[in-house]
Amino acid sequence: MSFSYTEAIANLVSELHKLPGIGPKTAQRLAFYLLQRPPEDAERLANAILEARRKIRFCSVCYSLTESDPCPICQDDTREASLLCVVEQARDVAALEKTRSFRGRYHVLQGVISPMDGMGPERLRIKELLERVEKEQVKEVILATNLTAEGEVTAMYVARLLKPLGVRVTRLAQGLPAGGDLEYADEVTLSRALEGRREV
């Protein structure tokens, strides 16, 4: 006779397993860890998740995650409005901001072109990017998508659409590992990649 969890534990393991990077064994470990902690720890975690879901939304300008709309970066008049850095996800904005090397503004595509995942260009914030470039008189767009096959395809696609607008289009310099994600790169590597960006 095989062992099976109670329904409540099985549901908890199942929900934790849905998180990115969490396999079934890690989900099980996390579930048992949470169940062994005092009840108030679980309540704090649940409340933090619910509060974040309630308060956080997409910025109506750059499409990053924010509590205020527009976000603090879009509201900051000291940032260089003519320089726009295009990233895949809001977490990439956080990674680049840690470098303290970039003083322009951002545009979050909210994904990459990935036919295998059903993500075509129409599902990304590309139309909004083109509108911003024209409306905000952007002079340079830095394509800072990840150095994955999908990130490269997305960068090339966006570059092709931007070129006719007469804007300088650059790509982050190598130095970031191919196949790597921005969120895992250290500040020095990201700073050098920003400094060594190249024309596309």
Molecular structure report:
The protein contains eight helices and seven strands. By secondary structure, it is an alpha/beta fold. It has two domains: 49 residues, Helicase, Ruva Protein, domain 3 (Orthogonal Bundle); 142 residues, Dna Topoisomerase Vi A Subunit, Chain: A, domain 2, CATH 3.40.1360. The strands form two sheets. A five-stranded mixed sheet has the order 4-3-5-6-7. Helix 1 packs across helix 2 and helix 5 crosses helix 8.
Topology record:
Elements: H1 7-17, H2 24-36, H3 39-55, E1 57-58, E2 65-66, H4 72-75, E3 80-87, H5 90-99, E4 104-108, H6 126-135, E5 140-143, H7 149-162, E6 168-171, H8 187-195, E7 198-199
Parallel strand pairs: 3-4, 3-5, 5-6
Antiparallel strand pairs: 1-2, 6-7
Helix pairs in contact: 1-2, 5-8
